[in-house]
Every structure is written in C-alpha cells, then in structure tokens.
C-alpha cells in the first residue's frame, strides 16, 4: 500500500518537474510548482522513512 502511494507521489513529482521546464518565464507559476514539488517530496520522504 505504501509503495503505491510512494510511486504515485514520485509520478506527480516527475510531472510537475516536467511542467516546471516550461514555466521559467512565469514567476508565479514557477514558485507554485516549486512549492508543490517540495511538498510532495516531503510527503514521499515521510512515507519512505516509515517504510524502512
């Protein structure tokens, strides 16, 4: 169950990182995506920490 959650978060992170490549001209969008990515990475790391 946790593995699926982690995989889902990692997929979302990759998707937002991809979007970030095209948002470099839009500062608000860049800030939003960076915040979202950080939040998802934090959540993923918490799940990974609980898993080990």
TrEMBL record:
Superkingdom per UniProt: Bacteria
Name under which the protein is recorded: Uncharacterized protein
């Amino acid at each position: 169950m946790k593995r699926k959650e982690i995989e889902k978060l990692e997929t979302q992170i990759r998707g937002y990182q991809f979007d970030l490549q095209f948002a470099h001209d839009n500062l608000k969008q860049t800030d939003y995506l960076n915040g979202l990515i950080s939040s998802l990475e934090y959540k993923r790391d918490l799940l990974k920490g609980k898993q080990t």
